[in-house]
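Late entry, heme C complex.
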Amino acid sequence: MKRGTPLLILLIAAVLAVGFVAYSLLHNGVSAKATPTALEVMMARKARHMALPSAARSLVNPVAATEENLRGGRLHFADHCAICHGNDGSCDTLMGSGLYPKPPDMRLAETQKLSDGELFWIIENGVRFTGMPAFSTRHSSPEDSWKLVLFIRHLPKLTAEERIEMERNNPKSPADLLEEQQENDFLNGKTPAPPAEPHHH
Ligand code: HEC
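Prediction complete; structure with ligand written out below:
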């Protein structure tokens, strides 16, 4: 073999690799409707794992898995996370299914095998270039995030009763609230309130 040949092979391999990655990232234009290729999912998860400070990964959950803390995490999840992740963590939601990348089914091993510290870090800091927001900014303490970690661990064993309670705590639109009020008034034997006039502030 001539001296230049290995270099040429390396160059061709590099060009092919870049082309493959570019195809993997750009297939289907920039539409969020596409599903990431298995290669892209694998590389993104690897990159995310490597980018996470290793000290953060080994943090131990300081919040005890009591019934009360689990319930706190569950209702917080219903309020802030279920819109994308679903109450059951399946991510089978309007928001979740339209994102790129789509949030994973958190009941499965792929998520469950992440360490507590890694789950906590993701909740606190979010994941750049994905729809996953950082929650350490406002309205939420580190303790809240640790309770969410407890709840994520509980997801594979979520009961029907717990799900129903969560549904009552999912965010509601003004129209939902009005309907609920009218239902309650009806059930309490009060005359149903007349349909609200749209009022301006
Ligand atoms: C606007 C949509 C959205 C909301 C709201 C949201 N997430 Fe996410 N979440 C995502 C997306 C998208 C991903 C995938 C990120 C990735 O691919 O790295 C994700 C990933 C995660 C992961 C990593 C799972 C894994 O296996 O990779 C955890 C843990 C998580 N979210 C927890 C939460 C919690 C807890 C809340 C509420 C406090 C929340 N998320 C709210 C969209 C959302």
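The pocket of heme C is lined by residues 44, 48, 77, 80-81, 83-85, 95, 99, 101, 103-104, 106, 110-111, 114, 119, 122-123, 127, 130-133, 135, 148, 152 (CB under 6 Å). Will revisit in the morning.
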